Amino acid sequence: MLHSPIRMKFHSFLYIISTLLFLSCQKNDNPSPSPPEIYEKTLIAYLAGDNNLSAEIDSKIDALASGFLNVDESQNKLIVFADYRDRNSLLLEISHHGAATLQTFDDLDAADPSTLQKIISQVYSLFPAKSYGLLCFSHASGWLPQGAFSNPLEYDPTRSKSLIMDGDHEMSIADFAEAIRLPDQSKYDFILFETCHMAGIEVAYSLRDVSSRMLASSAEIVSPGFLECYKKDLKKLFTNPADVSGFGTSFFDLWNSQSGARRSATVSVLNLDQLDSLAAEAGRIVRQGNPVSNPENIQHFDRNLVHMFFDLREYLLAVTGYDESQLTDFDNLLKHTIEYENATPSFLPGYPYSFKIDKHCGLTIYIQQPELETLNEAYRETDFYMDNMN
Prior knowledge:
Layout (H helix, E strand, L loop, with lengths): L4 H25 L9 E10 L8 H12 L7 E8 L5 E7 L2 E8 L7 H14 L2 E9 L25 E4 L2 E3 L1 H7 L10 E5 L6 H7 L5 E4 L10 H7 L10 H13 L9 E6 L3 H14 L21 E2 H8 L8 H10 E6 L2 E2 L7 E2 L7 E2 L7 H7 L3 H6 L2
Parallel strand pairs: 1-2, 1-5, 5-8, 8-9
Antiparallel strand pairs: 2-3, 3-4, 6-7, 9-10, 10-12, 11-15, 13-14
Helix pairs in contact: 2-6, 3-4, 8-10
């Protein structure tokens, strides 16, 4: 029996429709997972490179993206703010598919606290999470006012800036601490500073109310810094709680395995929840001790003619006349504050003003010196000094 062309076309049409409906039902029965209402962790990377670090920004983003491949992206977010010297600034969402641009900014000043605050608020709104981490990459010089690091004897004392460089603009630690506050006033799980000289008690004290932990360096960070660690160990920062000490250990082991001048690194992971007690005890020892007349004999961590970053414990020991018994309470508090610390035997050997590292407690401190009176005045205005050293 022959089928009519019309009937055959009609049956074919019904077959196609039923097949499409079947496939449609299959797709609906197994939908793609929806984003959670709240992520486990959102990590914000603030890469302020409108300076001579601009050429490193893209490699940092590539390394972060590579490391994020080992993280469960359905439960975690990695958001990068990238500021360049000669290009527009970008807000990027990193996924297993690469970097997607969320927003492009024209002529943005990354060292303006309002810029940092807007980025934090925007990410907080778009990607709410149970906990947050913050990573900062730029130039920095601890608590020091702008210009004091390169010329401590002559600088403009009205420009009290020290962190995140955008052209000739910088941000003060106090402004930074206020700008990064989360809208719900909760603390960050951690802050990572891929910047120089940020492991000072003055810095840590200023950030104790906004973050639970902090990773920083007493000395400079030799380029390319955390680059390889981002690739291999970024996943450590997405555990709950984050394995910040594990990340710090990986960083140190990498640089300690180098040879020559490249074997140069210091790293500290601090429990900022312990800073109030530690700072109070350090202040008590200084107030009751004797002034240090010659800080040059105390371990330093900068390559300047006039040193400004000294080992905290060695300074306190000198204040007591090298009486170890007077540091018993301090040492106990230090043990609970420093989750991890390490240092190579020397820093940039063979380079000008290189130095040996015989002592490294994990925190530095500024020591007032007669020839630095303008800088001393600025120091006496820091929160750490006013709350603990008066």
